[in-house]
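Let us practice reading a record.
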Amino acid sequence: MNDQNIATNLLNLEKGVCDLYMHGAVESATDDVRNVFAAGLNESLSMQKHIYETMSSMGMYQMCEAPKQKIDSVKQKFCS
């Protein structure tokens, strides 16, 4: 397993943790419980950002621009 595979696995795991915290916050019955989940979510979002930025700086996660035509098509779909 190489560094990119490990980093990708970490990023995917962190995305899953964010999803769990978000659902926990949404389903919370009290403000105290919601606040605990929200704090965990914010920390996980910060970790996810750090992992992504590290991968991006190392050329492991490259973004490409979406074609303007595709963006306009999606925008029109949701604005209708």
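A brief commentary: The mean pLDDT is 94.
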